[in-house]
Amino acid sequence: MFDVLFKLGWFFKQEKKRYLFAVLLLLMANVTEVLPPWLIGQTIDAITTRTLTHTLFYEILGAFAALIIVGYFINYMWRYLLFNGSQLLESLMRRKLMRKFLTMSPGYYEKNRTGDLMARATNDLSALRQTVGFGVLTLIDSTTYLITIILMMGFLVSWKLTILAMLPLPLLAIIEQRLGKMIHKRYTVSQDAFGEMNDDVLESIEGIRVTRAFAQEENLNGRFTKMTTDVVDKFMAVERLDALFKPLTIVVTMISFMIALGYGSVLVNRGEITIGELIAFNVYLNMMVWPMFAIGLLFNIMQRGNASLDRVMAVLDAEDTMMDSVDTLVTADHGVSFDAVNFKYPTSEQINLKAIDIEINAGDTLGIVGPTGSGKTTLIRQILKEYPVGEGSITIGGLNIQQLSKQQVREKIGYVSQENILFSRSVRDNILFGRPDATDAEIAEAIELASFTEDVKRLPQGLDTLVGEKGIAISGGQKQRISIARAMIKNADILILDDSLSAVDAKTETAIIGHIQKSREGRTTIISTHRLSAVQHADLIVVLDNGTIIQQGTHDELIHQKGWYLEQFNRQQLTKEEM
Asked: Which residues form the ABC transmembrane type-1 domain (predicted)?
């Protein structure tokens, strides 16, 4: 049950002063809380024996006042230390998760749903916070506080009465331990279901335009209703077990009260204890309701925390498929070459790239074309070092890509993806993401290179216009050009455009290509596209089909060869004439 505390031993060691002081204060608080019932018993006995004087009365009142004031400050301090510590753990684990999310390769996200990862970063971390906060409190109160009360009952009243009243406790502990194990299993299942629902909500929100276009709102709503019902059912399975704890505690406590009242009356008649001591004993029994209830809470919280920690650690312990070499080298060159490269995605059943041989000298432009699904983006992902290299070798600047760290590779590259992901910030902030320290003049230059200057003038707040989540507030062509400006402002050695001109018109495309040619003289450019007009100027064009290079050469060479390139060129030329 306490595995979660041992697993978090590194944190308790790190914050040992905080938790040591908090535990000491909790022990002191226990003393301040168990003394008042004894004072009550002494007062009643003094009244019964007619020995209560004014002096004694005021002394008792003074002792009560002192205990209240001291108890207030002690309780404030331990609560602050304990629950502030739990917030620190949650913040620390959240930062660790975020760092892990940012460093994991795309292959990891192909196997793990976004909604489930979000659930681990929210619900599971919240359960961990409860464990090191309220869980530690229940642990102390269900042990030291309970022991303190029992010692007070035994030494100050009667050990015989105490032992008899405590007889039901072992039964409570056994039942609650079994319930705790059942809660652990059901809680894990409920958290997994919550992760699936989270993922479905994210997909629904991201695809809201498609949903409305196909009038699928009712179908999705019905599906979501079923999913939420399933989640509620699984959480209720946990709560049904959880609900047994408090009634069970109350029943056991009532049995103890019955024993104390019955046998206590006998001891009073025998003269072994006084009426005041019997009343004090019953007050102590009443005080035991909380620590006995805390026993049930302890099993519950620890099992939930253990299940959540296992889910969080599964993410933190996951190994990236793209591990950096221990001895990384540095290259100033930016030529790129593929030598007999074969590659297969981790989840694929077939080879996705076959016998790829490409040589790009520093400063050259490579065009990658081919039908949809031919492997253009897969080829680019190899340069970005997103997946483990298969057979063969890929070099940048004459060095094998495996000798370069992921950071080294990506610092040399300015990349514009097919998705054109924008953040829910201003146009300016999205462009500055490529280089946060860029000046206003450099921003203006990048915008000009992306042929976005006139569009900026038409935006409501210019560069300060918010683009909305994933750029929903602007057009597809504007998203592409902001993405291009973001890559251009980085001024990287290698620029990669992955089908990044598909949403702009032919005139704008020509202007952007012209700007790239002029501004990137002497640096490497790689353009993947369906429009052949975007790569006609390239030093080398490769045609991919089903992961294999079926043609390569310059534009002039390829249009004089029979094959896919010539057919596509003629088709696109015919389309231009018809327009």
From this structure: 20-304
Q: Is the pLDDT of residue 212 over 80?
A: no
CA distance 495 to 486: 11
Give the number of other Cβ atoms within 10 Å of residue 372's Cβ. 7
Domain 3-316: assigned CATH number: 1.20.1560.10
Backbone φ, ψ for residue 512 (5° rounding)? -65, -45
Sorted by sequence, the CB contacts under 8 Å of residue 406 that are 6+ apart come out as 322, 324, 385
Q: Beta strands of 491-533 (E only): which ranges? A: 494-498, 524-528
- pTM assigned to the model: 0.72
Sheet strands (E) in 411-557: 413-416, 494-498, 524-528, 540-545, 548-553
Full strand arrangement of the beta sheet holding 336-343? 399-400, 391-396, 336-343, 353-360, 548-553, 540-545, 365-369, 524-528, 494-498, 413-416
CATH superfamily of 336-578: P-loop containing nucleotide triphosphate hydrolases (3.40.50.300)
Total Cβ atoms within 10 A of residue 245: 22
DSSP 416: E
Question: Could you tell me if 352 and 345 are in contact, meaning their C-beta atoms sit under 8 angstroms apart?
Answer: yes
pLDDT in tens, 284-297: 888 887 787 777 67
Alpha carbon separation from 83 to 88, 138, 294, 523 (Å, rounded): 9, 13, 17, 55
pLDDT tens by residue, 50-60: 888 888 888 88
Domain ranges of the chain: 3-316, 336-578
Question: Cα(264)–Cα(39) distance, rounded to whole angstroms?
Answer: 19
